[in-house]
Amino acid sequence: MLPRGRSRALGAAVLLLGLLLLVGLFLLGGDPWAEDVGGSCCHPTPPELPDGRPSRPASRDGASRPPRCQLLHVAIVCAGLNSSREVVTLVKSMLFYRKNPLHLHLVTDAVARSILEMLFRTWMVPALGVSFYDADQLKPHISWIPNKHYSGLYGLMKLVLLSVLPPGLAQVIVLDTDVTFAADIAELWALFADFSDKQVIGLVENQSDWYLGNLWKNHRPWPALGRGFNTGVILLWLDRLRHEGWEQMWQLTARRELLTQPATSLADQDIFNAVIKEHPGLVQSLPCVWNVQLSDHTLAERCYLEAADLKVIHWNSPKKLQVKNKDAEFFRNLYLTFLGYDGNLLRRELFGCPSQPPTGAEELQHSLAQLDEEDTCFEFRQQQLTMHRVHITFLPHKPPPPQPHDVTLVAQLSMDRLQMLEALCRHWPGPMSLALYLTDAEAQQFLHFVEASPVLSARQDVAYHVVYREGPLYPVNQLRNVALAQALTPYVFLSDIDFLPAHSLYDYLRASIEQLGLGGLRKAALVVPAFETLRYRFSFPRSKAELLDLLDAGALYTFRYHEWPWGHAPTDYARWRAAQAPYRVQWAADYEPYVVVPRDCPRYDPRFVGFGWNKVAHTVELDAQEYELLVLPEAFAIHLPHTPSLDISRFRSSPTYRGCLQALKEEFHQDLSRRYGAAALKYLTALQQPHSPA
């Protein structure tokens, strides 16, 4: 669902980029450092200007473009978590300028595929197709090549794209993930028209002296034509490559060179250059502005004179954005503009080419069209139908080895709750799955927050999933469902981010699951009693005995005892005080305990957005599916004080807000009746009770 005011936001973004691209007259300098993987094609050294500086190549701005609605194909090798984030920024820059339909051909490992499949499915960008190819199928074709580049085998896969791309595909643009567009990709596609009948590869000259071998003493690069070419941006004429016998050609060249070279230093780029050295007629030299290379020892200042020249910027250094040259700040700002750019804006179709709508888009638009904008609850109904972009596993994550009784803490949060994360990590040593509701810009702030925190950066078993913000109400249950779906352990502890679990809770829960014999036919929800403190400075109890002392002293309360006692009263705190063994409690109206359940438990009802009844509805589902409610005698979690959310403030101040929540409850009970029949009558009766959440 597209938010209102998008055109104003898009205009602001265009203005910002326009201002950036009007900055002129800058040069690049640098220090020696190994270049990033990329292929190459030579570009003749431009003639010098009277002041001794090289002139620019002739502009291609007037070149004919492909037909307006022609489908353009782009291939990218993308593996791992960091590469998945990089490719999103690349795609944003392409989509921002493009005026043609695009089809992405993504060669990925299993990790990147799961991330990007979810991202593109939920992004729902019009006129954008995506196909995935298994990188593991390509590894046997290149694993024999020694390679010292940090990208490993993935840096060699552009050599073997022919073996996975569709046989009917004639032309494709191949890109590294660390490039950023500053122009319409159709202009790059138009350069295929400059190929002679024999040319099969289009490349930009390497913008350093790497292949000249004079960067430092004993530097012995692979053979290349002149300065060689960079493979960060490639035009491949695929059917011609097949006709030329590309696979045999590059393999023969690579095996011969490896008789004297210990390994490739720049992965596929070294082999592309060795082939071109032997067969120079295969290559079409592209204007240098289509691959402005920002390695430390770049000579890219020979390519451009002003910002308007730039077409593609390539961070071809292991240092990426930390590369040092005199114009690096300008390039960083351009890159950061797209990094924080609201990707939701790209959902709007800004060109009229006919295309297959994204999966589910027509049904979604039909449902949205049925809404009455005069309905006082329009915001609620619109938010329920909003398809949020989801980027799962946003940061590096190493799941723990599988264990039969392991538990993942599941929670959700927004930017104003980030400060809770460090304390939570100290209290819960086990795996976590957390959904964060953020804008694109906030996602980058969150990334820096984690990287700067010794506590958070040390944890590799915490999976963070970014759900991009859109709409006026907080989609709490949609967030919970994202985090729940990504949990990898057999059991989950369904918590909230503002609760700290007992220090021993993780171990205690695993032991309890084993002792109670959960799993199989026995369905149970283990209740973790909830407490709260109103003190910002608070000494957390190390045991149940200490907690009871604080409770008796008035430093702790049972959770929301003063405002919403029905939410946790069935836990029976009086019984819990003396309990030595788990005990069963009965469901009651408005009960919303924090529970440990199997990972395949019912999902949360996404109609409940904002504040109110979101956990209550989930407990009803558990009861309707006949889950036992077992209270654990040594378990507890404590709610910490914080400023109220915007949604709870709106609930307390707005009768309309409360009326809409009541309407959602009634619709929920009607759906229960359809699913569970007569068994749902008790829930309908409970609805008549005069409880109303604070």
UniProtKB/TrEMBL annotation:
<keyword id="KW-0808">Transferase</keyword>
<keyword id="KW-1133">Transmembrane helix</keyword>
<keyword id="KW-0333">Golgi apparatus</keyword>
<comment type="similarity">
    <text>In the C-terminal section; belongs to the glycosyltransferase 49 family.</text>
</comment>
<keyword id="KW-0479">Metal-binding</keyword>
<comment type="similarity">
    <text>In the N-terminal section; belongs to the glycosyltransferase 8 family.</text>
</comment>
<keyword id="KW-0732">Signal</keyword>
<comment type="function">
    <text>Bifunctional glycosyltransferase with both alpha-1,3-xylosyltransferase and beta-1,3-glucuronyltransferase activities involved in the maturation of alpha-dystroglycan (DAG1) by glycosylation leading to DAG1 binding to laminin G-like domain-containing extracellular proteins with high affinity and in a phosphorylated-O-mannosyl trisaccharide dependent manner. Elongates the glucuronyl-beta-1,4-xylose-beta disaccharide primer structure by adding repeating units [-3-Xylose-alpha-1,3-GlcA-beta-1-] to produce a heteropolysaccharide. Supports the maturation of DAG1 more effectively than LARGE1.</text>
</comment>
<feature type="compositionally biased region" description="Basic and acidic residues">
    <location>
        <begin position="50"/>
        <end position="63"/>
    </location>
</feature>
<dbReference type="GO" id="GO:0046872">
    <property type="term" value="F:metal ion binding"/>
</dbReference>
<dbReference type="GO" id="GO:0035269">
    <property type="term" value="P:protein O-linked glycosylation via mannose"/>
</dbReference>
<dbReference type="Pfam" id="PF13896">
    <property type="entry name" value="Glyco_transf_49"/>
</dbReference>
<dbReference type="Pfam" id="PF01501">
    <property type="entry name" value="Glyco_transf_8"/>
</dbReference>
<feature type="signal peptide">
    <location>
        <begin position="1"/>
        <end position="30"/>
    </location>
</feature>
<keyword id="KW-0464">Manganese</keyword>
<protein>
    <submittedName>
        <fullName>LARGE xylosyl- and glucuronyltransferase 2 isoform X3</fullName>
    </submittedName>
</protein>
<feature type="region of interest" description="Disordered">
    <location>
        <begin position="39"/>
        <end position="65"/>
    </location>
</feature>
<dbReference type="InterPro" id="IPR051292">
    <property type="entry name" value="Xyl/GlcA_transferase"/>
</dbReference>
<keyword id="KW-0511">Multifunctional enzyme</keyword>
<dbReference type="GO" id="GO:0042285">
    <property type="term" value="F:xylosyltransferase activity"/>
</dbReference>
<keyword id="KW-0812">Transmembrane</keyword>
<dbReference type="InterPro" id="IPR029044">
    <property type="entry name" value="Nucleotide-diphossugar_trans"/>
</dbReference>
<keyword id="KW-0328">Glycosyltransferase</keyword>
<keyword id="KW-0325">Glycoprotein</keyword>
<dbReference type="GO" id="GO:0015020">
    <property type="term" value="F:glucuronosyltransferase activity"/>
</dbReference>
<comment type="pathway">
    <text>Protein modification; protein glycosylation.</text>
</comment>
<dbReference type="GO" id="GO:0000139">
    <property type="term" value="C:Golgi membrane"/>
</dbReference>
<dbReference type="InterPro" id="IPR002495">
    <property type="entry name" value="Glyco_trans_8"/>
</dbReference>
<keyword id="KW-0735">Signal-anchor</keyword>
<keyword id="KW-0472">Membrane</keyword>
